[in-house]
Specification:
single chain, alpha/beta
Length: 133
């Protein structure tokens, strides 16, 4: 089982959606998410879109990178520019890729639907590509 960490700044929208999509749709890959400055809550619209797509799990929550930094990840994916720029050094060398998405936080629900589709289309294929090599 490969382990992927999906990081953004607040860990309330994009990274949580990414975590849920990877766990639901990519066989042999387990995802967790974290933020460099977590909001401490999952955005209600992010939770709603995941529930509508039947991939929400109550174990998903907004957490700081410190909670997971000592886990053995095979890949770190940053999904926002701020997380990419402030991504810390991990205890051991871990490959990192960046797949950026616009933050839907504070916007209408339609933006969350758009972000969900973008993450599903772009992020999943990038992760699959990475593990093919």
């Amino acid at each position: 089982m490969k382990k992927v960490l999906i990081m953004c700044t607040g860990n309330s929208c994009r990274s949580i959606i990414g975590e849920a999509l990877v766990n639901a749709k990519l066989d042999g890959i387990e995802a967790k998410s974290a933020g460099v400055n977590p909001s401490g809550k999952v955005n209600p619209n992010a939770k709603k879109i995941l529930r509508e797509n039947k991939i929400w799990k109550d174990e998903y929550y907004s957490k700081h990178l410190d909670e997971v930094i000592d886990e053995d990840f095979d890949l770190v994916v940053t999904v926002c520019d701020n997380a990419k720029e402030t991504c810390p050094i991990f205890p051991k060398t871990i490959p990192k890729i960046h797949v950026g998405f616009e933050d839907p936080d504070g916007k209408e629900y339609e933006e969350f639907e758009k972000t969900y589709k973008e993450i599903e289309e772009k992020l999943l294929s990038k992760i699959e590509e990475f593990f093919k090599y």
